[in-house]
Amino acid sequence: MSESSIDSVNQSARRPNRWGVGTLSTLQLLLLSVTVAALNYLSMHHYLRWDLSRSADYSLSPATQRYLEGVVRDREEPVKWIMAYRRGSPFYERVRALAEEYQRLSRGAIVLEVVDPLRSPDRMQEVAAAYGFGMVRDLLIIDARTDGAPPVREDANRVRTLHPHVRMVVADDVAVHATTGGVRRIVGFRGEDVLTAAPQEFPRSSGRSVTPLPDRRVGSWAFWRNSCRNE
Amino acid sequence: MRLFRILTFKELKGYFLTPFGWVVLAFVAVMQGVSLSTAMKGFRDTPVKDSLVYVTFHTPVFWFYFLFIFPLITMRLFSEEERSGTLETLLTAPVRTWQVVLSKYAAAMLFYTVLWVPAYVQFQAFVWLTDLPPAWSPGSMLGVFAILMLMGAAFTAVGCLASALTSSQIIAGLLTVGLLVIQYFLSFVTVIWGESFVGAEFFNYISSQRHLHYFASGLLDTRPVVYFLSVSVFVLFLTYQAVDFRRWKH
Fold first, then answer.
1. Nearest-angstrom CA–CA distance, A64 and A88
2. Kind and range of the H or E run holding B221
3. Which of B246, B239, B242, B241 has the alpha carbon at shortest distance from B108?
């Protein structure tokens, strides 16, 4: 065997540089991890939706989209939406999907917070205390205050007045009911109509009165929670 | 590319020219039939506002068999070759590691796709036999099969990784089931603890049940597309590294 062929055999049998390969693999893994994390972060905050449901249940009408583009996005401070719905509520998914669509199309002008009163009782109590209501129904709060005033005022007669730029949309408002044979049934959903109409009343609004419930036990958090458990 | 094609066909033969593949296909077809029957019974007993497709893929039995598909179709991919010693032979052949990994993954994905053909036929049979208009919208049908493919892409990759990590098929299968069950139960984090904590958005983002819910309702979204495909790529890269490690460890 010639000297050159022996060199060739030795060269091909050379042991791999494990440190080099290992370091390169680790580096590749780190880079890919960062890329995947960054990609998913972007995807979480910037996404597209296609509503292929039978009646376009999760889409907003062109009028609402124009409203969001024209009015809401011009605001300096974002509008806060607090969706306080139980997960078991019949309209939880529909209202949530719609609220997320409002948030997405507003491009940051609407900030949505979802609170499940049963799973996050502490946060729910904070919200109920801040907005001065006894949480007895699923509702969505639209808070468009810009003046820093409290969301609710109470006068000497203990009559509470909601700030003119705060609206509460209760679950019953988004449902269309019909009574047949003495039984009241939900026959439709008008979430978009209600959610778009509520903030449009802000500039002309002179305030909304909320009369405190005479029986404070009924308006209390504990009563509401227990009533939900009994359902 | 020719080598990749040859390797893929070799793997496909392992599915379609052995009783194993047909048993898995039969098992999944029967379970899909049970899901559809359960959904149809629900439609007969009470008024249901959701589509038949939605209800079929939200029966308790669905997740039970769905999560077991992946260990069945992936557990033998690498571990069987490792145990019998053919993986070493394969890796000393003039093929690249990525060709080995991707060919096995592609074959598993093709077989997984075939597993859903009976489900589609069953839905069409509902229309043919009942002579009723479809109890679903085209969007919900498209959405369901799209999310099944996306979840399948990620979960099959997880199965490949588990199989590449061990020479025991049983351990690979258990590891796959374990990882997928953890992934499944992570969907319940926001259901149990609510959404008033910092990571709630993340848990919603990775929730397979949530994605299935919206896609089955006809609401398609880019978020699960990015999530499941990026997880697939990442896990396949880990599989590649695990297999490639055998080339240079000695």
1. 28
2. strand B219-221
3. B239
Query: Are B166 and B172 in contact, with CB atoms under 8 Å apart?
Result: yes
**pLDDT tens track for B64-73:** 899 999 999 9
pLDDT of residue B215: 94
Owner of token pair 């000297």: A3
Q: How confident is the model at residue B250 (pLDDT cuts 50, 70, 90)?
A: low
Residue A33 with chain B: CB contacts under 8 Å: 234
How confident is the model over A59-93, as pLDDT tens digits? Answer: 888 888 888 887 666 777 888 999 998 888 888 88
- Tell me the pLDDT tens digit for each residue of B80-111: 888 888 887 887 888 888 999 999 999 999 99
Residues of chain A where predicted confidence (pLDDT) is lower than 50: 1, 204-231
What distance in Å separates residue B22's CA from the closest CA in chain A? 34
The strand pair at A208-210 and A49-51 is best described as unpaired
Model ipTM?
A: 0.89
Which residue spans within chain A are E strands per DSSP? 49-51, 79-84, 110-115, 139-143, 152-154, 160-162, 166-170, 175-180, 183-189, 208-210
Give the single-character DSSP code of A145: -
Asked if B233 has any chain A CB less than 8 Å from its own CB, the reply is: yes
Residue of A33, A34, A50 to mutate when probing chain B, most B C-beta within 10 A: A50
Tokens 């994905």 locate to: B109
Q: Reduced to 3 states, what is the DSSP secondary structure of residue B219?
A: strand
CA-CA-CA-CA dihedral for B7, B10, B12, B13, to nearest 10: 180
User: Among B155, B160, B81, which Cα is nearest to B115's?
Assistant: B155
Percent of chain B whose pLDDT exceeds 90:
63
Query: Is residue B163 predicted with pLDDT exceeding 70?
Result: yes
Pairing of strands B219-221, A166-170: unpaired
In B, which residues are within 8 Å of A87 by CB distance?
A: 191
Q: Which residue has the tokens 């999907």?
A: A97
Annotate B92-129 with b (16+ C-beta within 10 A) or e (fewer): eeeeebebbbbbbbbbbbebbeebbebbeebbeebeee
The answer to whether B145 contacts chain A (CB < 8 Å) is no
Residues B185, B191, B195, CA angle at the centre, nearest 5°? Answer: 120
C-alpha R_g of chain B: 19
